[in-house]
Write a structure and sequence with these properties.
By secondary structure, this protein is mainly α. The protein is built from 29 helices and no strands.
Length: about 500
């Protein structure tokens, strides 16, 4: 280990020391040596979290488990996010039993609340279709004082049921929320409304709207329009246009608290009679929701995000233009919804123009997430070389630094297009930023370089990979051996040398 120990060691110093180690096992060795070198030094929660994260992201699960057990025997207080991240790590590797076991052990640690890890585990279980296990975990922990904000937990279960066309069971959970004095939020109503309308249960969906009037629409929030729109469009799809008209009037009056002159002057009955196309009727409803009430940034943003999420790009663009004409300034998240919709529709080039031109013209500064959406879309469409240009653009923007995920998207995108030399260059820049690539990224680049005859570059990356404690896949070794033109004995010598390097 080529570094000097400081005169006085603190957890924050040790954290920086192990973060900058390329090989996670070297970082673990430093972590374990600290207490023996400094008898008065004690690990705290954040340093344990850092070490657990390093081991987990490099797939050293056995070592990660040892550190977690060590933390259990240490009196230091640990944050709930440590367990949430470890649970995600286990789940990503398919180790669901380990994730559940870790959650069940949390009472043995000095951890005050378990809310984040509880909701994380629920989300993972329902996304994997393990509803019975998720419900059992919920029943065993929902009433414990360490688990707070139960609304989010209810929402997770309800969304899982609705996605599997069991909105009737989700409605029962909604009723149970009221019985437990747990008040639903806007997300609750959104989830359940989508489920009920998707299952064709418009009767219960209508009653849900009335419940919403009483519970969360008391202040007439403009963001509620996204929930109202789901029911109104579902009624139109079922041919119940007159019922949609009647409920729209109630929405404007009771839900959005529109002034009387607004919903009185709409004369919706006669207007509906003049339209023949169902899409035109829906357009009128959307316009009534954002104009008929008191227009606000919240109502416009909710409507625009909803339309983009459904792939109705042109409709969303019209509402977007109207919002700006009324003097409202769009938020970054609204532009991100537009870029994401364009990329999903195979129009990543248009999404890139939103980042490069439209946002800057409207004095809206793109975020790292904005660039990431555009980069992923361009790479998906085979335009990775264009996407690489965003690294320079981000470098020129103050406070906008490309993260590890962006680099990996670019490297993988270039490899998919056969641009292995360029991928190698991006990988070099990634390491310069001290982002350590995953094994899969290394494997793609090495195998690709061997394919195009760049053998020495491939060997360099194998050495770098092994120095980080990662092992190339068998197919990568085979590609390297074939490119070097050596026999099996020479290959074994090469492997042995690299293995020795990894121990240094």
């Amino acid at each position: 280990m080529s570094f000097r120990w400081p005169r006085i060691l603190t957890p924050s110093y040790l954290s920086q020391l192990i973060i900058h180690q390329k090989n996670p096992l070297t970082a673990l060795q430093i972590f374990n040596s600290a207490k023996s070198k400094y008898p008065t030094y004690k690990h705290n929660g954040p340093i344990y979290a850092t070490m657990i994260h390093i081991l987990g992201t490099s797939n050293h699960f056995s070592e990660m488990k040892d550190i977690i057990n060590q933390m259990k025997d240490d009196p230091c207080q640990c944050n709930d996010s440590v367990f949430a991240n470890a649970i995600k790590t286990y789940a990503k590797a398919g180790l669901f039993n380990e994730a559940i076991a870790l959650f069940n052990q949390i009472p043995q640690f000095n951890c005050i609340t378990w809310t984040h890890s509880f909701n994380t585990l629920l989300q993972i279980l329902v996304s994997e279709g393990k509803l019975k296990t998720a419900y059992r975990v919920y029943l065993e922990n929902a009433n414990k004082w360490e688990v707070k904000t139960r609304v989010h937990s209810f929402n997770i279960l309800m969304e899982a049921l609705c996605k599997r066309n069991h909105s009737d069971l989700a409605l029962q959970i909604f009723t149970e929320m009221n019985e437990q004095c747990c008040f639903p939020d806007r997300e609750t109503y959104m989830i359940l409304m989508k489920g009920l309308c998707g299952d064709g249960n418009l009767h219960d969906a209508t009653h849900l709207i009335y419940s919403m009037f009483r519970r969360i629409s008391q202040k007439g929030s403009g963001a509620d329009v996204a929930v109202y729109r789901i029911l109104l469009e579902a009624l139109c799809d079922q041919g119940q246009v007159e019922e949609a008209e009647r409920i729209l009037t109630k929405v404007l009056k009771k839900g959005l608290k529109a002034p009387k002159r607004h919903y009185k002057s709409l004369e919706l009955g006669s207007e509906f009679g003049t339209w023949k196309s169902l899409e035109e009727i829906k357009g009128l409803i959307n316009a009534a929701l954002v104009r008929g009430g008191v227009p606000s940034l919240a109502s416009y943003s909710a409507m625009i995000a909803d339309l983009y999420s459904e792939g109705k790009i042109e409709d969303a663009n019209r509402v977007f233009d109207e919002m700006r004409e009324r003097g409202f300034r769009a938020k970054v998240c609204t532009y991100e919804a537009k870029i994401e919709a364009l990329c999903r529709a195979g129009r990543a080039e248009e999404g890139a123009k939103v980042v490069e031109e439209e946002m800057w013209e409207k004095n809206c500064v793109p975020s790292v997430r904005t660039y990431k959406i555009a980069i992923r879309g361009l790479c998906k469409e085979g335009k990775s070389r264009r996407a690489v240009g965003y690294l320079e653009r981000m470098a020129r923007q103050v406070g906008c630094v490309a993260d590890k995920e962006i680099y990996e998207i670019l490297v993988n995108g270039l490899c998919c297009e056969g641009r292995y030399v360029e991928a190698s260059g991006v990988l070099e820049r990634m390491l310069g930023r001290r982002h350590w690539p995953c094994a899969g990224t290394f494997n793609r680049v090495i195998a690709g370089l061997c394919l195009v005859g760049k053998v020495y570059e491939a060997v360099y990356w194998v050495e770098e990979m092994v120095s980080q404690g990662k092992t190339p896949e068998v197919y990568v070794w085979n590609s390297l051996v074939a490119a070097l033109g050596c026999d099996k004995a020479e290959a074994e010598v090469c492997v042995g040398n690299l293995a020795e390097l990894s121990k240094q």
